[in-house]
Structures are given as structure tokens and as C-alpha cells.
Amino acid sequence: MQIRPVFTALRRHRLATLLIALEIALACAVLCNACFLIINRVQRMKMISGVDESSLAFVQLTGFETKGAKDLNARMLNGFGGIAGVLSAHVINTVPFGQQAGTFGISLERSMRNIPAVIDLYLGGPGSLEALGVKLVAGRAPQLADYVTLTNDFPSDAPVLITRSLAEHLWPGGDPLGKEFWSGGDYHYRVIGVVEHLAIAQPGSRGVASADWSAFAPVQPGPFLAGGYLLRTAPGEAPRVLRDARATAMKIAPDSVLDQDASQTVSDLRMRYFENDRGMTRILIGVIVSLLLVTALGIVGLASFWVGQRRKQIGIRRAIGATRGDILRYFLMENFLIVSFGVVLGIGLAYACNLMLMKRYELAHLPFYYLPLAAVALWVLGQLAVLGPALRAAAVPPVVATRSV
């Protein structure tokens, strides 16, 4: 069919055409960026922690005297070991998705002239690394002689295991085993092993790229490592074990304070950590559905108005030989052109919105393939929305041409 008559008709209704095109442009921009945000949130929620989440629980005590920390650790580990379903109990400073602890910048030079990464340092007593269930991919696990005594909040000189992503970041393409790094110039660490994954305690706090930049230092429990307890349980027993462990902790150390928020199964800690992401995803999905529905209703309303306004013209065309298919294709083509114009505007608007999000919220650049996908979605939506009015237009009989308006 010829497109010129369609353009001629659209020029006669510039304002209505422009309003629908702008609505489609807004829908295109929101659709691209909202889908991009949703996918980013979903990928974040699927983040690999590297630990056996379903079989781990964490108990946190506060408010105890530091001088009695060693005795407290011994009593707590003994009490937790007697709970049915507990395979092992260990002292550790935190767990993935738990409270942030041991965060500092590191350098490959003692002078600290350059700080290439900010990491989380996990401090764990004997057996804690094995209890976490991390996968060793290079080097060795800590031996008994590797567990150093703490004289401060962090070990001043200790062997560590680091994640593969951190190793690749610090020594791209190189062998990290035996390499050294420093923190503050006085804290020295040497790499004895590499684990596949071990997410930092708050994996979204410093960006997705650094969510796995962590190290594990084997240390002896004592005054500077006390109150945090990792329980490895039998499969499916973590919730019940946690319930019993809370009660046990209160019996053993009634003068201490049990941190209810921090004392959770690691699975529950993950669920709570990503609660805002799930809420934002639901909101964005609601925004997309609402905007597409409004856009579709706008197309239906405009097309229905035009069908009623052009009813006699349609009858005349039918009287001089136009088929139902010709009328149907006319309205589908007209809507396609309007949607295409809106999509072109929407592409520019989508990138403008993305640049704003990149500047304010450190969002990544919008991938190009989102644009054609959004265009196809809006074309399909537009054609489906106009199909009802177009079919009614195609059903107008030629006799309408003989009636007075």
C-alpha cells in the first residue's frame, strides 16, 4: 500500500500524533532502563557467596568482658557442640551477608603509595575455613602452625587465602601464591592459597566488581576474636540448630547480649540482605506494566477516535473497491509509523536517562541490544493495541458512503 496518504492523514492530526509518539518515547525510555535495572538487581541477588549457606548458622554475642573472652569462647564452643545437628562450631569475626568487619585498603608496596583494592579480612579460628565450605582452587588450606595469635584487631603478620577474583585483580595473569601485600604499612600478609569465591560481608557496598574481594586469615581465638560463632549443621537442620543455639548462648553467658539481628542462618542473612533489591524489582515491574498498559490504552483510544471520525471516508473507500484487508493494513501502517517515531525519540531519551543514572547511582552503561528489544516490544504492543479498532474499521460496510453525516 502507498504510505503517502498515511503521512497526509497524520499531518492533519499533528497534536494527537505527537502526544501518542511522546507517550511511546517515554515508555521506550522507561522500559529500557527499568529492564536494565531489574536484570542488574536479579544478577545481584544471584551473587555467589562461596560458602555452604544452607548448612551454616551464625551466633553473635556482645557486651562481654574482653579479659574473659578466651574462657567465653571455650564455653560457647563446648555448649554449641552438644546441640543435636551441629557438626562443628568455630570462632569467626563475620560471615557473608552478615555485619561488616575487617575492611581496609591494601597495597602491594609497604609504602602504600598505591591502594589497588579495598578488601574484607575474615578472621577465623581452627576449622572455620573448612566449615564455611569454600572451594580451594590453588595453594593449601591453613595448617595448625598458621594460626597466629592476635595482639590487635588484625594480625600484623599472617598467611592468608584470597579469592580468585582478588588474585586476578592484584596480579593479572600471574601466580598469586607466595605474593605479599600490606595494609597501613605495618600489617603484612602473604598468600598461601586461593579460593574460588568468598563474598565480602556486605557484597553490594563497594560495587559488583569488588563483591568477592576478600581474604581469610587463620588466627587463634582470644580477646580480639570472640563473640562470633559459626555453626555447621546437618543438611536442613540450620533453622532448628539456630533456635537451640540462641537458647544455649543465653544459658552459658546470661550477662552477655545476644545480637538477634546478626544471629541468623546464612540463608536468612542472604534473604534479608537482598530484601530491598526484591522490593525494588517488584516496583519496577509494576511501573513497566502500568506504563505499557497506559500506552496501549492511549493507542486504542486514539485509533478508536479516528475510526469513528473517518467512518464515512472508510465507507467511500470500500465503495470504490478497497477491501477489508486494505483498511486493516492502513490502520496498522499508520500506527506502526507513529510507534516508530516514538521509538526513535525514546532511544535518545533512554540514553539520556541512563547517563543520569550512571552519574548519580554509578550504574553501568546501557547495553545497545536493549534498544532493539524495546522497539520490537513496543511495535508488537502497538499493533496489538490498534488491532481491535482496525478490525472495526475494516468491518465498515460500503453503504455508509451513501449516508449523510
From TrEMBL:
<dbReference type="InterPro" id="IPR003838">
    <property type="entry name" value="ABC3_permease_C"/>
</dbReference>
<keyword id="KW-1003">Cell membrane</keyword>
<dbReference type="InterPro" id="IPR050250">
    <property type="entry name" value="Macrolide_Exporter_MacB"/>
</dbReference>
<dbReference type="GO" id="GO:0022857">
    <property type="term" value="F:transmembrane transporter activity"/>
</dbReference>
<feature type="domain" description="ABC3 transporter permease C-terminal">
    <location>
        <begin position="287"/>
        <end position="397"/>
    </location>
</feature>
<keyword id="KW-1133">Transmembrane helix</keyword>
<feature type="transmembrane region" description="Helical">
    <location>
        <begin position="369"/>
        <end position="391"/>
    </location>
</feature>
<dbReference type="Pfam" id="PF02687">
    <property type="entry name" value="FtsX"/>
</dbReference>
<comment type="similarity">
    <text>Belongs to the ABC-4 integral membrane protein family.</text>
</comment>
<feature type="transmembrane region" description="Helical">
    <location>
        <begin position="283"/>
        <end position="307"/>
    </location>
</feature>
<keyword id="KW-0812">Transmembrane</keyword>
<feature type="transmembrane region" description="Helical">
    <location>
        <begin position="336"/>
        <end position="357"/>
    </location>
</feature>
<dbReference type="GO" id="GO:0005886">
    <property type="term" value="C:plasma membrane"/>
</dbReference>
<feature type="transmembrane region" description="Helical">
    <location>
        <begin position="15"/>
        <end position="39"/>
    </location>
</feature>
<protein>
    <submittedName>
        <fullName>FtsX-like permease family protein</fullName>
    </submittedName>
</protein>
<keyword id="KW-0472">Membrane</keyword>
